[in-house]
Amino acid sequence: MKKSIILLIGVVVLFSLTCKSKLQFKEYSHNKAGFKIALPTDWKKTKEDANGYEFRKGLYKMVEVVSRNLGIPSQRLKSLSSEEFSGMLKASTLPMVKGYWFIKGVKDYQVIEQKSTTWGGRAAYYIKTKGYSKEVEKKIVVDLITTIDKEKSRLYLFLSQVIEPDYLQVKPVLDSMIASFQIIP
Question: Which of 18, 50, 125, 180 is the most buried (most CB within 10 A)?
Fold first, then answer.
């Protein structure tokens, strides 16, 4: 009898874990901003403008995906060496994070990780920070990744904001969102 109960509990746990891991994704295409991205269907689009989207899941999880015209001639961007281009990405990404923290009223933030990477098939720069948000009255973790389409002279940015206790649970979903990103013609 004990073996049957243990086996039944094991089957129920395995079934519930399998059901929870099957996220449904919806693809969003923003033709004007020039990108598409897939997000779980339980995330709601809360803002859309000419430059991108904002999505939320509950009160403490937020993602923004935007695109901005750089105003730099594409010939100039194409002439940069890979080192110069990586340096430009790094030099432009950190001020974006600092500006975000300032606008959101976040204090005592710290950079946890920063690195050159790829995103959407292009060179990119990634920064992870955390700090105390007065807005939500909790510690938050912000991931920011940027890349540039040299042909279009456009900067693309993915920013996520999640309260610290939920971050490790949400990180695989954020990684799936980032991996689904594509620049479209």
Answer: 125
